[in-house]
Amino acid sequence: MTLHRPNSELVAVAWVRGVPGIPAGAVGTTLPGDSNAWPDGFVQIGVVGGSPGRDVPERRPVLQLDFWAAGGSRPAWGRANQLAERIVEHCYSSTVSAATPVQRFVALPAGYLGARVQTAEVLREPRRLPADEARYARYSLDLLLTWVEVAA
Q: Where are the domains of the chain?
């Protein structure tokens, strides 16, 4: 069986799912339509830039991470911000001896080669974005991941 090659979105989703404090099942590339499906918030990931290594098979995507939280009568700014701050804090846990280090293998879907994240760096401070008509709170930050493909 031929295994598929990983891509930056798959690697980023898998890496963010491993960040301590990020709710299980609350990470993806598409925001679920029903906010009841993400009561503790949701992290939406998209590739916005970066480039693969020219001479080394290393990927360096720039990712936009949007942190959503559904509110009642007012947007839940604090909940959305705390999801973003967990990513920022985790980027400082670069030692391999950390409970969940930045540099680690990530679990990709069945049928894909493996991947190892080597570094994670926040490029832009989490910023608050205006609430929408549904009163969803949203913070956003840019993250640079460096990762390599590994044999399964």
A: 8-150
